[in-house]
Amino acid sequence: GENIVVGGANRWTYDSFVNWEFFPKGWIEKGIPPILVYFKETQTPEQEWNKGPGAAANAPEKLASGAVAGQVHFFPVICNPEQIKAQFELRGCAKLPSTVD
User: Most buried of the four, 31, 36, 83, 93, by CB within 10 Å?
Assistant: First the structure.
């Protein structure tokens, strides 16, 4: 389907991922299902990256603290979170340390 924020197909290569996380952070490690999955990618055209939540995620102070610029995506966890985590890891999706958003 089409992306409602920036348009275009909702398809990204795994090697374009620069970060991913579950929210709230730490729930999955406690065996509690998280609510949201977050990922940031660089395949979307750069001029779209600061739309929606990207403006905050790509702010100069975030980048200075170690974040990587890209397009932000969120989706609800309506699947097995352990399974999607395993797939992110299996496919080599980049992940920043949890101290960096």
Answer: 93
